[in-house]
C-alpha cells in the first residue's frame, strides 16, 4: 500500500500547488457570461490573474473586492456588496462567482449570510444575475479542491431540485480541472457520435479555446449556460471524471436523483474502453467505426511505444487526480515511478497511486527525490529543477507559460492516450545518449592486479 508522507517543511521551496480560489475561479470561467470575484486583497487577485493570462494567453475576466486594512479588521461585507453592485452595473454578468481568500477566511466572517442579505436588499438591482459563493481559503487544499467546491456551489445554488422528466438522450459530464480545452471538445464529439447530447459542466472549451469574439465582451463568452446548469436534473445520467468530482456528482444525485458513474481517469486503454461501453449502453447504439479505428491506432501505438517506456524511471509532481492519471499511464507502459509529489493529502485517490510513497510537498521535494530519473513530469515551474538535474521535462498541468498550445493537447480517450505515448516516446528518443566503450563493456577500465605480487613464485 502506498505511504502518504505529510509535508514537514515550514516553507515552500519552488511551490508546486496553486490555491483554492484560483481553482474556483477556473471553474466559474467555464460558465457563459460569468465573472469570478475574489473576496480579498488586490494582490491575491493580481497573482491569480497573471497565472491565468500566462497559461492561456487570453484576456481573463477576474475582479476583486479590494479589501484594505480597515475592511480586513472591521469586516468586508460592505466591500463585497459594493463590488457585486459595481459588476452588475458595469458588466451585467449572468453569474458572479465569489471566491473567498485566506485574508477574509481567517477572520471567520459569515459570507453566506452576507450574500443572502445582499440578495434580499438588492434583489431588483441584481435581477438576471446569479451570485454563487465558494468558500475557498488559500491555506487549505489546492486547485482541484477549489474547482470542485465551485462546481458543488453552483449545483446547490442554481440547479432545480426534485425529480424531473428526464431526456434519455441527454447526459451530464462533470470534468476534472486537469482536462484541457482539447479534451473537453473531444468529449463533446465522442458523446455526440453516439447520438447523445452532452451537457459538460464546467465547459472551459467554450470560454478559453483561443477564439477572438467580434466585439468586446467583459465576461466569459462561452461555456455552460445558466439554463443548462438549472436543468441538470433532466439528464438521464451523470459522468464524473476524477475523484475530486465525486462530491459534485453526489450533490447532483441528492438534489435531483440523477444517477452517476465516476471515472478516476480517461487516459489508458482500459478506462477508455469502460467509458465507451457506458456510452454505448446509454444510447443503445453500437460503437462508431471512427472510434473503433482510433482504438486500433492506440493498440498499435502501445506496441510501438512500449520499447521506449520499459524500465524508465519517472518523477511526477502534480495535483492528486492528475498524479493518479499520469502514474497509472506510465505504469501501464512498463515504466517505474521513481518519485511522486502532490499538493494536498485531502484526496482519497492518493491511496491508489501506483508508487511506493507519495510526498505532499513542493518542487524542491521533487528535485530531491528525482535524482537518477529519466523524465520529470510537472508544470513549467519545474524547468529549473530539470536543468539542474540534467533530466528532460514534460510539461503538464497548470501553469504552462513557456510553451504555446498546451490547452490544445489531447490527453484522454483513445486519441489522447495515443498522442501522449508519441510525445513521451519522442522525448526519450531525443534524450538518448550515444553508447560509449565504457557503457558497452563495464569491465573495460577495471583495475588489473599486479602479476608479480599475485604470482606464487614471487612469494618465495
From TrEMBL:
One GO BP: protein-containing complex assembly
Family: Belongs to the NifD/NifK/NifE/NifN family.
Pathways involved: Cofactor biosynthesis; Fe-Mo cofactor biosynthesis
Species, as recorded: Microvirga tunisiensis
Pfam families: Oxidored_nitro
Signal peptide: none
Protein name stated in the entry: Nitrogenase iron-molybdenum cofactor biosynthesis protein NifN
Biological function: This protein may play a role in the biosynthesis of the prosthetic group of nitrogenase (FeMo cofactor).
Chain segments annotated as coiled-coil in the UniProt record: none
Annotated spans, Disordered: 433-460
Superkingdom of the source species: Bacteria
Molecular function per GO: nitrogenase activity
Domain (Nitrogenase/oxidoreductase component) ranges: 19-428
Keywords: Nitrogen fixation
Entry keyword Acyltransferase: no
Compositionally biased intervals (Basic and acidic residues): 441-453
Amino acid at each position: 500500500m502506498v505511504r502518504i508522507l505529510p509535508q514537514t517543511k515550514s516553507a515552500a521551496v519552488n511551490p508546486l500547488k496553486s490555491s483554492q480560489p484560483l481553482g474556483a475561479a477556473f471553474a466559474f470561467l467555464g460558465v457563459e457570461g460569468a465573472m469570478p470575484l475574489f473576496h480579498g486583497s488586490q494582490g491575491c487577485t493580481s497573482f491569480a490573474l497573471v497565472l491565468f493570462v500566462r497559461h492561456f494567453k487570453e484576456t481573463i475576466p477576474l475582479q476583486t473586492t479590494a479589501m484594505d486594512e480597515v475592511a480586513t479588521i472591521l469586516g468586508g461585507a460592505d466591500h463585497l456588496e459594493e463590488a457585486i453592485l459595481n459588476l452588475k452595473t458595469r458588466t451585467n454578468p449572468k453569474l458572479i462567482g465569489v471566491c473567498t481568500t485566506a485574508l477574509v477566511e481567517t477572520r471567520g466572517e459569515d459570507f453566506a449570510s452576507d450574500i443572502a442579505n445582499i440578495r434580499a436588499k438588492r434583489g431588483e438591482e441584481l435581477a438576471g444575475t446569479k451570485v454563487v459563493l465558494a468558500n475557498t481559503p488559500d491555506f487549505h487544499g489546492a486547485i482541484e479542491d477549489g474547482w470542485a467546491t465551485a462546481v458543488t456551489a453552483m449545483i446547490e445554488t442554481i440547479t432545480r431540485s426534485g425529480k424531473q422528466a428526464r431526456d434519455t438522450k441527454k447526459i451530464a459530464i462533470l470534468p476534472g480541472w486537469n482536462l484541457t480545452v482539447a479534451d473537453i471538445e473531444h468529449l463533446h464529439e465522442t458523446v455526440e457520435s453516439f447520438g447523445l447530447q452532452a451537457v459538460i459542466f464546467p465547459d472551459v472549451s467554450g470560454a478559453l479555446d483561443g477564439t477572438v469574439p467580434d466585439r468586446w465582451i467583459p465576461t466569459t463568452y462561452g461555456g455552460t449556460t445558466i439554463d443548462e446548469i438549472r436543468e441538470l436534473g433532466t439528464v438521464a445520467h451523470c459522468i464524473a471524471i476524477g475523484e475530486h468530482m465525486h462530491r459534485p456528482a453526489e450533490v447532483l444525485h441528492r438534489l435531483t436523483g440523477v444517477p452517476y458513474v465516476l471515472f478516476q481517469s480517461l487516459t489508458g486503454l482500459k478506462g477508455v474502453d469502460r467509458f465507451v461501453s457506458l456510452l454505448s449502453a446509454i444510447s443503445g447504439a453500437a460503437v462508431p467505426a471512427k472510434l473503433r479505428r482510433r482504438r486500433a491506432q492506440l493498440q498499435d501505438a502501445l506496441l510501438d511505444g512500449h520499447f521506449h517506456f520499459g524500465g524508465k524511471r519517472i518523477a511526477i509532481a502534480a495535483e492528486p487526480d492528475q498524479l493518479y492519471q499520469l502514474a497509472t499511464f506510465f505504469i501501464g507502459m512498463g515504466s517505474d515511478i521513481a518519485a511522486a509529489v502532490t499538493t494536498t493529502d485531502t484526496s482519497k485517490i492518493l491511496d491508489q497511486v501506483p508508487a511506493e510513497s507519495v510526498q505532499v510537498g513542493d518542487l524542491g521535494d521533487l528535485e530531491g527525490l528525482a535524482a537518477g530519473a529519466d523524465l520529470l513530469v510537472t508544470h513549467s515551474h519545474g524547468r529549473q529543477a530539470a536543468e539542474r538535474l540534467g533530466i528532460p521535462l514534460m510539461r503538464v498541468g497548470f501553469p504552462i507559460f513557456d510553451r504555446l498550445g498546451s490547452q490544445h493537447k489531447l490527453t484522454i480517450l483513445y486519441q489522447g492516450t495515443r498522442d501522449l505515448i508519441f510525445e513521451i516516446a519522442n522525448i526519450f528518443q531525443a534524450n538518448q545518449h550515444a553508447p560509449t566503450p565504457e557503457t558497452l563493456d563495464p569491465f573495460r577500465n577495471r583495475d588489473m592486479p599486479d602479476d608479480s605480487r599475485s604470482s606464487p613464485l614471487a612469494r618465495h
